[in-house]
Amino acid sequence: MLDPNKIMKTLVDRRNLPEVLAKLQGILANTQLLGFDIETHDALRHDGLNDLMKVDEEGKKSAGSKLIFDTNRTTVTGFSLYPDGTNESYYFNLAHADAENCISFEEVRPLLDSYKGYFIIHNAPFEIVMLEKGLNTKWKLPHGKVLDTLILCVTAYNSDTYTKSDFAKRQLTGLYSLLPDIMAAYGSQDIEKQEDLVNKFCAKESDAAHSYNGFVKDLAWGFNLKKASKHWLDYTQTTFEEVMNGRGHMGQLTGEEVVKYGADDAITCVGIYHEVMAWLMTENPKAIKTYFEQENPCCWVYAEMNATGMRVDVEAIYKAREEQRLEYAKALRKMKAILATGLKSVWTGEPSQQLVKYEKWYANGRDRYLGLIKQFAELPDNLSDYDLVNYGVRSPVGKGWSGEEANAVNLSHYMPMRVILFEIFGLKAMVEAKKVQSDGEARDKLRAKALESGNELVVQLMDCYKVLGDIDQCLKLYINNYTKMVDPDTGRMYPTISSILDTRRTSMSNPNAQQLTKFGSSKFVRSFFLPDDDNSVILAPDFSAIELVILAGYSNDTGFVDAYGQRPHKDLHTRTAAIMVEETLAEFLKRQDKKQIRTEIGKPSNFGYWYSGSLNSVGVKLGWDRDKIQRMGEIYREGYAEAEEWRLATIQEGKAKGYVELPDGLRRYRFEATPMWATVMQQKFDKLGVSEFGKKCIRRIQTRAGNQMVNAMIQGLCATYAKRKMYRAMFKDLPRMGLRARPMFLCHDELPTSVHRDDVMKIKDYLYELMIDGEGIFDNVMIDSSMAMGRNYLAFNAEKNPKGLVELMEIDKNLPCIPENRWGEAATDEETDLILDYLFS
Question: Which CATH class is domain 4-159+221-311?
Fold first, then answer.
């Protein structure tokens, strides 16, 4: 094992550059692996990012705010080299505070250009982009000569993988804070309180000290360089905060202050590379081939997407922000009138007995919230939109407009919302596990009851809440952030793409365009995203039901294979709908409500069952009771018995092995699924005297582990297909074909690609063939893909978005350049030409 403590860290600057270069020339000529790392600062980042990160005048960001690098204004302050097998690492001072000692990159460039081996880098996409953009020389790392140890770690194990012996020794000390409540709940047989405590320990999203995730977080090997170094090399690195010692950025430190910190990164990534490779040789040799051929090459995909960025319609973003603010003000005026009426003619003045019983905050908070609600309802009608939004209420919309938070009611906060719903309007709340429900789903049910009973005022109230909530969410998640992320010089946003999820799916941030919705109130956000230039369009190939195709491939289920064993695919959702109402397909197709049942039951069941083994999410939405949910689940399982057999076999395999393995050799480790884990875990609970509580938690976690393994098999293979196709298109086929096209990013299972208008006809068929290539994984099913083309990324609408994505496999209605009798049909080449001309008309 490499010991970084025994490696000399040498600062290279104006004082010793010639002799170090001469020394390294010979060393690098005989080195196959070279640890490489850069240090940067982006004190010159544009104002929008400063605002988004809440950076103060001294350049320090607020605690808890995320770090977003300015792709076009980051300065490389230095870089480190560690030749594998030597006892010395080097840190080159390019732009630190001791300017008199700094050297230029051009002076070192010949050394790096002459190196023929591999650069070992942790998180290579960042280094690739910043070297290209942060140096005046625009130097690039050599393509195909970079090995990313972050991607290697993700290839080898999961974010929550840990050493079993460490797990066995560690006790549940974080649970101490809950012990009195656990003892009391089990002593009094308070079933609801017991369930609440189990939820706290098993919460999927929580990493609190008392939760299971918090327990595992301390044990996990981790992907972060500092944490991975601790596990693989037993070496504790200096943290960024420690080296900064209160300074704002790296450029404010001297070379001497940074040399150990910088050189350590080059050393440890080489050490990690060797240790993880050795571990894989023993544990999972097949994954090594996948790392070199599939996972590691994608570091260039992620780098290119970040470096090029995403062209956006800046004017449309600001226009949408203004429109959303005005719509918010309009909804507030309506809400104000509804509340005034409710306070005058509905409210009895008496507290809500349900809130008294179930909500602890209500006793002390009721008067305050009533006062704020009345204050809002009594505001003058002649307030301007600006004053109403910014000072009449407190909301993300107002904060994004004025930059201030008003001392007013936050209508979307659950406490004042529940006072309005359950006291002022006297509605009966739904209560689950002793908790009052007021989320969107609960409000939809309250609206349905009000509509049925003819209570128009409550219907209007719920409609207002939906509008306010949708706009709140849209501005908070998208528009307010987008206005700050757009580079003022280029009109682009520069997303960070990575693949560190346990499913190996890619993720995206700043912005996260990977999860843009096609439906709902925020779908218009897609219209902001444009092709790379005014002479290009977006071609958007989209996998058709890829998750269900994969399920069919794995399970060989008769019904699934019948639907997905050919192109075009058959309609599985209608078949499922018929199964769920226990009719033959012929009988079902005669029903007047067949489309509604397909939409409400068939499709949600197909996509909702396989990751949980139940139809609970479908049933809750449709108002089914527990017995009906269970009965419908049994009907669904009987309808797809072979697929269910595969699901159960996958879970059983995970229980036996502690992992499941994808066709590409990657594994999803779930020690939590095994009997050994359950035994060791129960012993931990027994020591604390909470055995029964432990049994419930173990059942919950093991059920979840089984579902996670099924999820990993499906989502993981989605990731395999997507990565192979992105790299192949971007760095093999399109350059070879000499065509002007660039895959822009992934969005769900869609690969929007910017294509020059003159190359569309050459590329559209290629992209379709690329997407449907099964990669030799299954021989019983066929992948299919849709294809759309537009000058922005939102679906075509003849009135609202005439330049949007037109479906080429099923031509959109009302498309003026195509005869009506061809709407709904697949476009011929001649029709595709007409659509292209129309989009540029």
Answer: alpha beta
